[in-house]
Amino acid sequence: MRTFAVSLALLLAPAFASAGHTRPGYVDGGQSADGRFVVTAQSANDPKAKDNWKFTWKDTKTGETHTGSLIGLPFGLDHFKVTYSHIFVPPGGETFALWQTASWAHGGSQPPKLPEPGLIRNSTEEFRKYPGFNDRIVIYKKTGEVLKRIGMNDILKPNEWIYLNWVQGNLYWLCEYSDVLPKNGGEPPRCGYRYYRVSPDYTVLEFTVGPSADALHKVKDEGADVVNYRRPVYVSLTDGHFLDKKPTEKDKIPVRPFVGALSKRGEDMKNYVPSLDPVRVAGKVVPAILK
After folding, report:
1. What is the DSSP string of 71-126?
2. What is the pLDDT of residues 105-127, one digit of tens each?
3. pTM of the shown model
4. Rounded to an integer, what distance in angstroms lies between the CA atom of residue 9 and that of residue 223?
């Protein structure tokens, strides 16, 4: 059972699954590439809790275990406070990282209004530092101490805020990878899989700043430079520092973050149970009655 997530496969109401943008929420656990160190996430199922999400770190060889809180995550289990988050465990298991993709942080989902409505051509410091934009990447020690917190204000350049837009609990600020965009009735079984690549050893995260599919039509009149803008970003998942360029070592070159087939919306996505090693082992669709 080591290879399959005990992290969380959320069962959500039918109205949730049928929404135009929102997909089933989750915080997926992960394991080191050798399978020895495993980190899973559990919800306290308390919408009012500041730290609704807990983690369990385990060394499967010695039995050593640690538990603690995951910071910066919203409730994650309903339409307006959804979360699409992924845990990565680098070799050695001394640290782990949490990557929060296209959802708001715990700080809220109503940022300050800007002087100019519409596209965010000129953001303010108050806007950029809004708590809902925080904690995109958080690096933890295995015992739960926070080593690094990275928010959107640490990532985005002034000209890149123009691509930011949101619909209810969904926060769009990254460009999707074209090979996992919804097509022919299928899409990635996890919403977050659209927005990143990760190295096979889970030490390097890659994502691309630019217009999402939803933002493309919003910026279509801003000129070719804005429409075609793409900036790849590489982040170390061991300590949170930004890399100058894409790694060249085989195990550190980011790849598609999951293997396996695309999913159909609805019951398939709700009942999807991911692997703890998604770049190598496919998840499964498990009927709710068997979970």
Report:
1. PS---BSSTTSB-EEEEE--TTSSEEEEEE-SB--TT-S-PPPPSS-SS-SS--HH
2. 998 999 999 988 899 999 999 99
3. 0.90
4. 42
